[in-house]
Here is the input.
Amino acid sequence: MEKIVSLCKRRGFIFPGSEIYGGLANSWDYGPLGVELKNNIKQEWWKRFVHQRTDVVGIDSALIMNPKVWEASGHLSNFSDPLVECPKDHQRFRADQIEITDNGFQLCPSCGEILGPEKQFNLMFKTFIGPSEEQANIAYFRPETAQGMFVDFKNVLETTRKRLPFGIAQIGKSFRNEITPGNFIFRTREFEQMEIEYFIAEKDWKAYFEHWLDEMKRWLKDLGIAEEKLHYDDIPEGERAHYSQRTVDIEYDFPFGKKELYGLAYRTDFDLKNHMEKSGEDLRYTDPESGEEFLPHVIEPTWGVDRSVLAALVEAYHEEEAPTAEKGETEARVVLKFPKWLAPVKVAILPLSKKENLSSFAKEIHRDLVQEFVCEYDETQSIGKRYRRQDEIGTPYCVTVDFESLEDKAVTVRDRDTMQQERIAIAELKAYLREKLS
Ligand code: GAP
Here is the structure.
């Protein structure tokens, strides 16, 4: 993990948040490469699950919703973690993460004092709407994007005229006042989710649960996650979220242990039923064939964006011996072997010299390639160092422009993984890269 965190900072993937003010614990900013990586994940997800399906539509709902939403959803009464506090140094911990001693105590991990009694700590992030900080103006940042889909269910149904089964998808930020955030971007208080609420008739829930489990497996394969590092954990009753009748946690072997990456839940009609009761709006669906009116049930596949980024980085990170420019010698290289669609930069254009004629020739190639691919142009340092840099950020192809290029109108294309080099005519370069990157 330390190597990944350091690479992320050094190369501009992820920086500590508010760093010039000494940081803010467990807050992280995505840098120029991190935002490209994260956007690639979100765009691919949207393309696959919204654009390429006829049964899913997207929304983008408000982050701060009417507080009654959270009463109806059960988050105000149930969305809590068990908290224990040290009476001596006042540090707080999640009770379920602290061992119980043989004589039934829990001890402070910092000072060894016996921890106080367990209390429930609500994870909702509170704020006030408007200028006065009064009880009546309390609002909450959403702890999941899901409620937007339930609250907009009727509007979506009426405007799209979708029939069951159909889903509503959303990507966006969620906020939780976690007691113990940590492990880099794994658990933070502000994070992004990609969620689908898939509305079905109750009798079909088992089949659609399996369907979405398969879809999640297919997604993980395309994200480049090794199958043997994934675990599917059926959560027993009593440990599931308050709304769920079946939950499968998809876990991944992170460097700090086996932890939840994504989740799949059967939420029954829990949410629509409660919103119908509390809002007084009829949220029932009318079957167009039978005319029967009923509340749809829901299968919810949910993906954490930041955990996707972290798992993809962990999987892609490789250290290996690579040949140097001097024949017969090798040196260590760090390379991020992202699947090509995921790489933040697809092509690097590297002129062998900064001399004006070569530089302007290479810049012309760059101008042409950026029309289609995310590219970097780099003419500083030795070519060996520039290759290493591109390997470290996972760029699949480096295009080297040399003095011969001015004569033969061709360039050398280097493959990140095999490090093989091929001479390609500039006239064919775009088509060549298009095919390789597809
Ligand atoms: N709507 C259902 C729901 O929110 P969840 O298991 O609480 O379920 C879904 O969260 C996903 O969101 C998790 O599988 C994880 O990927 C991500 N996630 C949850 N809490 C997180 C946190 N504190 N930091 C980063 N990601 C988080």
Remarks:
- The mean pLDDT is 96.
